Amino acid sequence: MPESLDLPRRLIPLTGVKNLRDLGGYHTADGRQTRWGALFRSGHLADMTEECGTEMCVRDIETVIDFRTDHEKVRHPVHWPCMWTPRYHAVPIGGNVAARIKELFDSLTAGSVFPAHELDEGFRAAFETIPIANASGLRRMMDVLIDDHQGNAALIHCTAGKDRTGIGCALVLTALGVDADEVVEDFLLTNSAVDRDAATERMSDYIFAKSGHRVTPRALRPLVGVEADWLMRAWHAMEQSFGSIDGYLQTALGLDDARREKLRERFLTP
């Protein structure tokens, strides 16, 4: 595995925050790298402990971008550790998609039977839909990173830190000029960071205990992990609507050359 994809180096194991990863060390076309300790991604922050707050302070994370909807925040409210007070930006995206995925999961725990492909296709559809239907939210993410962020470290998250966060971080890395293969590899690192096989085993047991209905761990993979094809579908949707990924970045997200350079000054090595 290339050094830039070294999971032990970039994964930050915290009991109260899942899938917390450093986006440093990725290579760009002009020979630079993303700065270590400047940009992070994770799942939700509702289960943070005081230890988590200390870790966030040590890493100087001062900006938080939260993609969750209001309904998600009600279910999993954040109680900020006393020593950590970041600049918090609520940027809700993917509300309809998140609600539909929850419906599918709730139907499982209630004992309903549905084809496994419906869950998988739900996530594939989400990746096709989010970049276009939620372009304004993704543009707000870029605006925060360029205009509001004060220059230390920033954290982007949603609920699981894999789908909306995966799209958002892939767009940031692409705008920074990171090699496309490394963008995909970072997206796929979620599967290792959350130990997808073990997680789906636990989820299968939980569903069986709740409903008496046995669902194979493999069928539950979309709830825990990600697939490269999902990101490719997001890319294809952008290309179909805007002609190219660069066209999407410039037109939908407002990243002209000057703003992209500001982003690169903030998150790339000299």
UniProtKB/TrEMBL annotation:
<dbReference type="InterPro" id="IPR029021">
    <property type="entry name" value="Prot-tyrosine_phosphatase-like"/>
</dbReference>
<dbReference type="InterPro" id="IPR016130">
    <property type="entry name" value="Tyr_Pase_AS"/>
</dbReference>
<dbReference type="InterPro" id="IPR026893">
    <property type="entry name" value="Tyr/Ser_Pase_IphP-type"/>
</dbReference>
<dbReference type="InterPro" id="IPR000387">
    <property type="entry name" value="Tyr_Pase_dom"/>
</dbReference>
<protein>
    <submittedName>
        <fullName>Tyrosine-protein phosphatase</fullName>
    </submittedName>
</protein>
<comment type="similarity">
    <text>Belongs to the protein-tyrosine phosphatase family.</text>
</comment>
<dbReference type="Pfam" id="PF13350">
    <property type="entry name" value="Y_phosphatase3"/>
</dbReference>
<feature type="domain" description="Tyrosine specific protein phosphatases">
    <location>
        <begin position="139"/>
        <end position="185"/>
    </location>
</feature>
<dbReference type="GO" id="GO:0004721">
    <property type="term" value="F:phosphoprotein phosphatase activity"/>
</dbReference>
